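Researcher: Please predict.
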Amino acid sequence: MNQTDRNIILIGMMGTGKSTVGSIIAQHLNYTLVDLDSEIEKAVGKSIPAMFEAEGELFFRNAEAAVLKRVLQRHRVVIATGGGAVLRKENCELMSCKGWVAALTAEEAVIVERVRGDVNRPLLAGDLKERVRKIMEERKDCYQFANVTVDTTGYSANEVALNILAHYRG
């Protein structure tokens, strides 16, 4: 399999644009977009907030790892991961092995603005700015395995997608 047939995996904090950018990249390459959180919900039969509430974060992270492993068996897909998919070393190793990884970043204030009002993010309960700051700090070193890192602050989703595609194609 040559470089440009590899799966593209988008990682990064919530609100960095993984799903939106992933959709554009998938269209450009005629790949299938896989939204990992949606796949997890389908596999478990519950929304992510319901999983967190009923079974807790560990249950969700176990489901996430299992679904990621399954999805990475496919070819020619763009995978928009959830922000926490990088919390397990084995997920990161699998993503590196089975695809080409792009990390999306954004400034804290931009992320806060983008996720404000989104009720489907159980980790953001409470003081939004404080939660985003805390999560960004906890995960700041989790994205270093990516093939490329792209800051989405001040760029349109299309500009970000084209930037990633330029790197992907080498």
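Model: The longest helix spans residues 57-71.
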